[in-house]
Design goal:
This protein is an alpha/beta fold. It is 43% helix and 13% strand. It has an eight-stranded mixed β-sheet, with helices on both faces. Helix 8 packs parallel to helix 19. The longest helix has 48 residues.
Length: 522
């Protein structure tokens, strides 16, 4: 039984047309195919479209014929409406079997006994819309359907906007860092190759290290006070610093056992200038700034590379005897990486310091970070270092959090992802109380320090073969995820230059050429 439709009628041309419960026909009763010819004409050559209203499917079929390479998400009010249409409208059943058409229920139905036609609308968009490949999205409502669901239309639009906001944020990050990530990954793989050849690809914790409490050191302003307590009880801690906090601890004379970095940018190397790396384990994202790994390797320091989710790293991991360990980053939160590293090492007790996710006492960071050096060097009489710090803090809107710290939307997002991480592993105490967090489950003791054993010859050979295969098609293939960040970089670059009509094939070629160049140099 349908929630929106009541029956079917036969048009003058003999085609089946659904009829709404209001008695109104969803399409022309004379010639629904001809009526559908004008649907979505204003979009030009669309590559990705959300069509609101499936009805008899004539408008979807016409749109698809004019845009044969377009991916379509077709939305209906409920799962039962989709089931009814597939059973009673022949064209709808035919469309449901097409590779590039996905039916999705907005699921405003109250009947929970029916199986869902698909995932939630937001999830369908998140899993299928990749701006780097498809470019702009078109949202096209069927006029008759719109009139029938007026009360729910705004709700549906809000859900679409919510998903697109998340997709847009991810795309912006990929476009900004896409090319840099590719370069960094290949440079760090080159360092790993050297390490493997000279047998330096093994690391281990000191004896009895797991009996200590793992101290995760973030660089918030509260570290000014808690650093003293750590220094006084240093022997009780295995200190794992985030990259921003490394220099601050070095200037306080506090030894760091491990340091974690996932920042791809050049400035992240400033955290490591002058750092004593002899006895420190470097835990580095393969997409992180490669100068950090090169410097650590030159000093024979122990390096553990990890995978924070870049598809190219995951691909390279297939060629390892011991795949790169996956560390959670919470959308770029290095404190979560450090805490997850401690968890996977097998530490039963973990204490987190300086994870303020806010500004306090007029400061964004603890004393002694690279920003102190940067702003002290850049200050002038009209604009001293304090003014520069203030400018840094107030570049976006700030709100006070529960602890009275000033907090930007980005810091709030980091705080939320940290809370989600802690919730997933049922940590008993809040990170913000600086208490020891007892893991409720048995320590993991993952094989973090075994040699990766990466087969570079096979990796290079298969990357070349994969690039040739991807160059043959404009369709979105699963393997294309390897180059989506690079494609995002080039698409945004072309858009800024006014070349927003660049084809998918041209985008792929730009991304593949860059990857193949680095692959030759590996």
């Amino acid at each position: 039984m349908s929630a929106l439709y009541k029956s079917i009628v036969t048009a003058k041309t003999g085609l089946v047309v659904p009829e709404y419960k209001s008695g109104r026909a969803a399409h022309s009763k004379y010639d629904p195919q001809r009526e559908a010819e004008t649907f979505g004409q204003e979009t030009g050559g669309a590559s990705f479209a959300v069509i609101l209203g499936i009805a008899g499917g004539f408008h979807i079929d016409s749109f698809l014929k004019r845009n044969p390479d377009c991916k379509i998400i077709a939305v209906e009010k409920s799962a039962q409406d989709i089931a009814w249409l597939k059973e009673n409208a022949p064209l709808v059943k035919e469309l449901s079997q097409k590779r590039d058409v996905i039916f999705c229920a907005a699921d405003f139905s109250s009947d929970t006994t029916l199986p869902a036609a698909s995932d939630a609308l937001e999830q369908v968009l998140l899993q299928n819309y990749f701006p780097a490949h498809y470019g702009a999205i078109s949202i096209l409502p069927l006029r008759s359907w719109l009139q029938e669901i007026q009360d729910d239309y705004e709700k549906i639009l809000e859900r679409i906007k919510s998903a697109l906001k998340e997709i847009s944020a991810d795309y912006s990050t990929q476009a900004h860092f896409g090319r840099l990530w590719t370069k960094n990954i290949f440079c760090n793989l080159s360092v790993l190759n050297k390490i493997q050849k000279c047998g330096q690809d093994k690391a281990s914790l000191a004896p009895n290290a797991l009996q200590k409490t793992a101290a995760i050191i973030a660089a918030g302003p509260s570290l000014d006070q808690s650093a003293k307590a750590i220094q006084e009880a240093r022997d009780n801690y295995f200190v794992i610093a985030t990259d921003t906090a490394l220099k601050a601890f070095g200037r306080r004379g506090i030894k760091v056992d491990a340091v974690v970095s996932l920042d791809a940018q050049y400035l992240s190397a400033e955290h490591f200038n002058g750092a004593n790396s002899k006895d420190t384990i470097f835990v580095l994202d393969l997409a992180a700034n490669p100068s950090i790994a090169k410097n650590a390797q030159s000093k024979n320091a122990r390096i553990v590379f990890f995978d924070s989710g870049h598809p190219l790293v995951s691909f390279a991991s297939r060629y390892c005897k011991r795949p790169f360990v996956k560390l959670r980053s919470g959308g770029g939160t290095v404190a979560i990486c450090a805490a997850d590293f401690a968890r996977q090492c097998g530490f039963a007790k973990i204490k987190i310091f300086g994870a303020d996710f806010g500004y306090s006492k007029g400061k964004p960071y603890t004393k002694g970070t690279y920003l102190d050096d940067l702003y002290m060097a850049a200050q002038t009489r009209p604009q001293n270092a304090e003014s520069l710090f203030t400018k840094l803090m107030f570049r976006t809107e700030l709100n006070k959090n529960q602890r009275g710290f000033l907090q930007s939307p980005t810091l709030l997002r980091y705080q939320t992802t940290m809370e989600e991480f802690l919730g997933d592993y049922e940590w008993k105490d809040s990170v913000y109380e600086w208490k020891v967090c007892d893991l409720s489950q048995k320590p993991q003791n993952a094989p973090l320090f075994e040699a990766n054993g990466l087969d570079f010859a096979s990796l290079k050979k298969d990357l070349d073969a994969l690039a040739r295969d991807l160059d043959k098609t404009e369709r979105l293939e699963p393997q294309e995820s390897l180059i989506l960040p690079e494609m995002a970089y080039w698409r945004q670059k072309m858009d800024k230059n006014g070349q927003n009509k660049i084809s998918i094939k041209e985008l792929k070629k730009l991304a593949l050429n860059n990857i193949l160049l680095y692959n030759k140099l590996l």
